[in-house]
Specification:
With 239 residues, this protein is α+β, with helices and mostly antiparallel strands. It has helices at 11-19, 29-37, 118-127, 129-155, 158-173, 190-197, 201-213, 229-238, and strands at 5-7, 41-44, 49-51, 59-65, 67-73, 79-86, 89-91, 104-107, 111-117, 174-176, 182-184, 217-220, 223-226. Strand 10 (174-176) and strand 11 form a beta hairpin. The longest helix has 27 residues, at 129-155.
Length: 239
């Protein structure tokens, strides 16, 4: 596991952060307080690893603030990004099966992470069926997303893969502008996109230009705007 820095902030601030974690939403305020007291936090700076592939741990992780990238390294030493996680989610679920982590987890910006010990986690889900249901839904959704991405890699052209990825990112970090368009809050380079859809940077550049030419997206001040959601969705499906 990465080094990070252990945080010792006041309890009200900690409770507020924990209450924003999606799988913990069913908990009452006193239950959130109980959990936050038993879950240490660490801060990871941009580029720091929360954990590396093949690391084993006795905790699952709660992303309280910031963004985390989950990625692997292929035999040719090329990186492939599986997912970019936003604050408010649980990750590192391989620990629940007693397995080592199959991927790397890296902070994309300063990020606070809660280290939820497995004993506390199992106690939590056994006593709170609603929390257990939310955890199961998260894991199933994540598994389906992984399978969908693998299908895209095998069957779709780069432009369709890029369209699918942009639509996926909109669900987690999209913002509606005054003009009724959608903006991605995260700043992504073509190289970042390449690691997420299994394509070279030059191929991503060509694909992004295609999306611009047909009026789906615009790039303004290094941020991506979706200007024609219907066409982008159709391209993602039709490939």
């Amino acid at each position: 596991m990465g080094e990070g820095r252990t945080d010792t902030e006041g309890q009200p601030e900690r409770i507020k952060r924990f209450s924003l974690v999606e799988v913990l939403e069913p908990l009452a305020s006193e239950e959130i307080a109980w959990l936050s007291q038993r879950t240490p936090e660490r801060t990871f700076q941009r580029g720091e690893l929360v954990y590396a592939a093949e690391d084993a741990s006795e905790v699952v992780f709660l992303l309280l603030t910031g963004r985390i990238r989950l990625y692997g390294i292929a035999a040719g030493r090329e990186e492939f990004t599986f997912e970019v996680l936003q604050a408010g989610t649980l990750f590192g679920e391989a620990s629940l099966a007693g397995r080592a982590h199959p991927e790397y987890a890296q902070a994309l910006e300063p990020s606070r992470v809660g280290l939820l010990h497995l004993n506390t986690f199992w106690q939590l889900v056994s006593q709170n069926p609603q929390v257990n249901a939310k955890v199961m839904k998260l894991l199933v959704t994540r598994s389906c997303k992984d399978k969908s991405r693998m299908s895209d890699l095998a069957l779709k052209e780069v432009s369709a893969r890029l369209a699918s990825l942009i639509l996926e990112l909109l669900q987690s970090e999209g913002v509606v502008t005054r003009e009724g368009h959608y903006r991605l809050d995260g700043r992504y380079t073509h190289e970042h996109f390449g690691t997420m859809i299994g394509a070279k940077r030059v191929s991503v550049t060509r694909a992004f230009r295609k999306l611009q030419d047909i009026g789906c997206v615009q790039l303004l001040r290094r941020q991506i705007y979706v200007t024609d959601l219907a066409t982008l969705s159709r391209l993602a499906v039709e490939g």
